[in-house]
C-alpha cells in the first residue's frame, strides 16, 4: 500500500547503516541539529539539507528534486518552511498533492509549530514535537521513523555533549531581544559565523558582524542567539556602547553563574571573566556584545576561554583585536523582495522589487516602509514619487547615523527644528518629562486621544506627523529610535522608545515656555498613571512598575492633585516594598510625605495612606524609632477622628505593632496584634486578606516571644487560608510557607521543615526572582534547616552543591549585602548565621570579623538592652572561647545572659540559650559549681517552656550531665545523660550530629538567631 509507513532504508552501498535526509528551514536549524544528533547516536547516517526556495523555480520542481536525496526525507514542518520564497498555501497544496501524495512513504515529517500550515501537509503525517519534554519528543521522532526507542547506555557527560533540546532554554539566558519572526535571509553569513566560531581554538572564538547602520547587525545577532542557542549553556547579551554599561551588564552575569563575590562591580566582573576563561561552571557559553563601536574602550575586557563571542559594530578596527570580521551588507534583491512581501502581503513581486530598488535594499528602511505601506492607501509608485519629489519628511524614512555634536550649537539646531518640523520640538519637550535615556513614548501614544491637548493630539494621533517629527530629530542625532521588542502581532508604536541623551534632556527641559511646561508635564503624568499595572503585589507585573518608577521624579508627580497620579505613587511604593527596593522606596516616600503635607495639608486622608506605605518601607529597612513616631501619630489621629473600628485606623495600628516588635517591645506588640486581629475578624470575617495579614503579624509577635507551638498553629491557618483565597504561588502564600517552615525548625522538626522549605525555595526563585528579599529569606531558612538536620558535611560525600548549607549561607549573605546593603536587618540576620557556620567549620577569622561587625551594627542601630545585641554578644563569646580568650568570653556571655533575661524574661528560648553558653564558659574558667547551678536551673526552665524533647532542652540536659560529672556526682550525671541520649535517639536519630556529639561528650552550645520582626 502506497500510504503505509516504511522503515528508514539502508544506503545503496548495502551497509547496515541507515540514512535520513533532514530537510529544514534555516529558522529551524536548532531542531535539525537536535534531531540529527539523536539519530546519529543510534547509528543512523544523517544528511542535513537546508530548504532554499528560489522564487523563480516552480515549487513542484523543487519537491521533485528532493526525492533524489539519499534515504528517507524527514521534513521539519513549520510556518517558516512553507513561507520561504515566499509561497502561498495554494501553491504548496498543489505541489504536495502532485509530488508527495503518490508515494508518501518516501517522506516523513515532524511538526515544530502550532501555526496554520497548508492543508495538504497532512499527507506528510507529521508528528508534533511541541509542548513536551525531550524524552517524549525523541520517542515520537523514533516512532515516526520506525526506529527503536529503547534507552541508550550513555553517561551523563556523553549526553551533555549534544545539542540541547530546542524547546529547553539554556541554563542562563540574559537580555536577548525577542526573536524577530520576520527575519529573512543571511543564511551564508550565519553559516560563515557558525563555522568560524565552531572551528576556533579556545580563546579565539570571536566574530564581529560589521556594517553600516540599518543593515540589521543587531537583528542578525539576536537571530544567531535564538537559532544556535540550544548548543550553549549560557547566552548573555550585553549593551557594549559604553565601557561603564558593558562592565555593569557583564558583571551582572556573576550571580547567574552562581559565583560568590562581593557587591563591587569590579570584583564581580573579574569573577565572571575568570569563570568564562576557565569554563567553570559552564564551558559552552555565548557572549553577544551589541553596538561595540569603540573597540579601544572595551577590547581588554572581552572574555577569552572555551566559549564564543559575537560582536556587532560599525567599526572595522575589531579585526585588530583577535576578531574575525564578517561584513553585513544590505539585503540581496531576492532577500529584499521576500522580506517585503511577507511584511506587506498586499504588494506584488514587482511592487516589492521596485520598492527595494528605491530604498537601496537597506533592511531597516524596508521594514518600516513596507509595514507603513501595507497599512496605507499609497501605491508603491505614489510613494516613490514622494521620495523623488523631495518631500520625504512626510513619509517614513530612517536617517543615516550622525554624531552627537549638537551640544555646542544647540540654539542653531533648535531653530532649525522649529523652522522645519515644529512638532518635533513639541515631542522633544514632552520627552524631557520622562527620565533621560530610554523614553517609553508608547505610553503617550496609548493614551485616549480625547485626553490630549490640541497641540499634541495631532502629533500623537497622526502617524505621518509622528514619523516626520521622529525623522527630523534623528536627522540631527537628537534621539535614537528603539523598537526591537515589537512582536509581529503588535502595532509598531507599542514597542517604541526613544533614546534621549542626558545633555539634550537638560538643555531642552530648561529652554521651555511656562505654558508648555505646565501642559506637557500634565500629559506625561496622566500617561504614567494610565500605564499603572494596578497590582503591585503581582511579580509578573513588576517589570511594568520598574519601567514607570524612574520617570516619577522627572514628571514631578508628587505635586499633582490628580487622584489617579496619587494612586500611582501609592502603587509604586507598594511595588518597591514587595520587590525589596527599600532604600529607593523610602526616599520616594519621604519626598512624597514632605510634598503632600505642603500640597494637601498635614491631616488630609491621603497623608495617612502615604504614611502606611512609607513606614512599611522604613520598617523593612530597620528604622523602627522613626516609624514608631509616624505610626503612633497616625493611630492617634485616626482613632480620634474616625473611631477605633475604622479600617484605616486598624491598618495604622497593625503598623505600630510592627514598630513595637522592631523596638523589642514584644509584649505590647502582641497585645496590639491580638486586638487588631479581633477587630478585623469582627468587621471583615476570618478569610479577608486584611484579616489574614493581621493573623500573620500576630504569629510574628508570638515567635519573637518564643511561643513556637502557638506560632506554628497560627501560621498554618494563615498559610492554608492564603492558598485557598489567593493562589499557591501568590507571594503572600509563599511567605506563609517560609514562616511555617521556620516554625517547624524552631520546634526541632527539622526534616519536615526542610521538606517544606526546599519546595518553597524553588517556587520563590520562579515567582519572586533569585535576589528578592523573600527568596533570600527562603534560601536562608533552607540553609538552617539542612544545617540543623546534620547535613553540614554532605558536600564531602556528594560534591559541593549550591544548595548545601555552606554555599547557601555564603550566597545569601553576598546577595543580601549587594541587594539590601550591609546594615539591612535581613543582611545582619544572614551575617549572624554565616559567622556561626564559619566558627564551626574552621574559618575562625571570618567568623570573628563577621561577628564583630554584627555586634557593632546592632549597637549602632538599636537601643542598649535590645535582645539582638545580647544575642549577638553571646555568639561573640563562643568565638572568643574558640580562640583561647576564655576570660573575655566568660565576661561577655554573662553580660549577654543578664541583658537577655532583662529583655525577654528568664523562660524565653533566647535566655535559655544564653544560659546554656554561660554555663559552658563557667565550667571552662573553673566555676564548676556555678556552672552546675545554672545548667540545672536552665533544664528546669527549658522543660517548662519547650518540653523535654525540644533540641534546646536536650542540649541543656547534656550540659547539665557534664556539670554533674564536674562535681563528681557520677551517678546522677549518668542518669541525666542516658535519659537525654535516649530522647536524642528518639527525636533526632542516633546518627544525627547532635546525638553523635553528645555521645562523644562534646559540650553543646547554642547559636543566637535573630528573627524577622
Strands, count: 14
Strand order of the largest sheet: 6-8-9-10-7-11
Class by helix and strand content?
A: alpha/beta
Biggest sheet layout: 6 strands, parallel
Number of helices: 46
How would you describe what is shown here?
The chain is α/β, with parallel strands linked by helices and 1013 residues long. The chain has 46 helices and 14 strands. The strands form 3 sheets. A 6-stranded parallel beta sheet has the order 6-8-9-10-7-11, with helices on both faces. Strand 1, helix 1 (29-40) and strand 2 form a beta-alpha-beta unit. The chain is globular, with a radius of gyration of 34 Å. Mean pLDDT is 84; it is low at 1-15, 389-412, 483-495 and 792-800.
SSE inventory with pairings:
Elements (H helix, E strand, L loop, with lengths): L18 E6 L4 H12 L4 E6 L8 H8 L5 E6 L1 H5 L5 H11 L7 E5 L15 E2 L5 H11 L11 H6 L10 E3 L12 H13 L6 E5 L6 H12 L5 E6 L3 H9 L1 H4 L8 H14 L6 E6 L4 H4 L9 E6 L10 E4 L5 H11 L5 H10 L4 H12 L5 H9 L21 H11 L1 H10 L5 E3 L2 H4 L8 H8 L1 H13 L3 E4 L14 E4 L1 H9 L3 H17 L11 H7 L14 H16 L3 H19 L4 H16 L3 H19 L4 H16 L3 H19 L4 H16 L3 H18 L5 H16 L3 H18 L5 H16 L5 H5 L6 H15 L5 H16 L3 H18 L5 H16 L3 H19 L4 H16 L3 H19 L4 H16 L3 H18 L5 H7 L14
Parallel strand pairs: 1-2, 1-3, 3-4, 4-5, 6-8, 7-10, 7-11, 8-9, 9-10
Antiparallel strand pairs: 12-14, 13-14
Helix pairs in contact: 2-4, 9-11, 13-14, 13-15, 17-18, 18-21, 20-21, 23-25, 25-26, 25-27, 26-27, 27-28, 27-29, 28-29, 29-30, 29-31, 30-31, 31-32, 32-33, 33-34, 33-35, 34-35, 35-37, 37-38, 38-39, 39-40, 40-41, 40-42, 41-42, 42-43, 42-44, 43-44, 44-45
